[in-house]
Structure prediction request, 359 residues.
Amino acid sequence: MNDFRTERLKDSEQAMLTCTMCGFCKSVCPSFKEAGWDTSAARGRVILSYGLVQGDLEPDEEVMESLYSCTTCMDCYRRCPSKVDVVGIVENARRDLVAGGRMLPKHRDVVAKVRGRGNPYGEEASVPETLGREPRPAPLAYFAGCTAAYRANEIAGAALSILDKLEEDITVLDEGCCGSVMGRIGCPEEELVPMMRANVERIAALGVETLLLSCAGCYRMFKEEYPQHVELPFRVLHFAEYLAAKEPPLRPCPRRIAYHDPCHLGRHAGVYDAPRDVIKMIPEAEPVEMANARERSRCCGGGGGVRSAFPEAAKRMASARLEDTDADLLVTACPFCVTNLRAAGAEVTDLTVLVDKLL
Prediction:
């Protein structure tokens, strides 16, 4: 007998019934293009989720692999004629899986590290220790995020270097994980909201007026998800938005530069122009668009917990994305995109790092 409880998936039942199974999502789904099975496309995940709600399916290994191979890129929603919230369905399914004690081994390890150390990498040092700066009262704060602080260190270093060169009165933060990783895996809101409150309280205690973030995932959390649960007494800007408004003087860079839109910054949060405006400020640079750009940007494969659970599949998705450009230099605005695209052999740099070199 199937004793799996689908408390959260029941909230998405109407969305599942709205899906007409037209298959338009298959033309854009990165995991379907990588795997080739219908269960790896958005409509396949809807069918499996409906089977779980009806009690016709067990959440076995194959079902879990299908639900967790979704990068949550949201391109299926853009393409869907019925505007079915597939990401919402998938994330509700994941919440039910976690609530039922079912989690992929890699994700279980990541969650244990966040719970134990406050970051998904299990690092013992705090973010201020890693960045070599102490929190202090200031109007402008930089939220590095776990990946830029502990793995893609050049991004956090470049961000702080830019702010120093522009003589900004800034502070780093004794930040904890923003909650994005655990949210994408399916941890309950009851666990995420205290993490949100703790971060907001730390930021507010320093009198911060503007919070700058260089991670698209962290930005989406603060911009889109935090306000649903906590009040933010400061404004939130991605570093690209800050740079676009600041218009820093830059040295020439005579290269053809293409910009890759991170899913969490683009489709999820609607930030498309700011990074391109910054690239246009670079003297002698030739901005070029990728074959699929802006709202149609193809996912790099690094989001939604896919890179941690299925690294080889994530790398193949990144390789597919690289087919969209022949530019001299690929630029993006997310440490996850940088890491995954580099794993596929791309010469890619974060916008923050590029600007710091040219400032």
Summary: The radius of gyration is 20 Å. The longest helix spans residues 189-205. The beta strands are 140-143, 170-172, 210-213, 235-238, 256-259, 286-288, 329-332, 348-350. The CA atoms of residues 252 and 283 lie 4 Å apart.
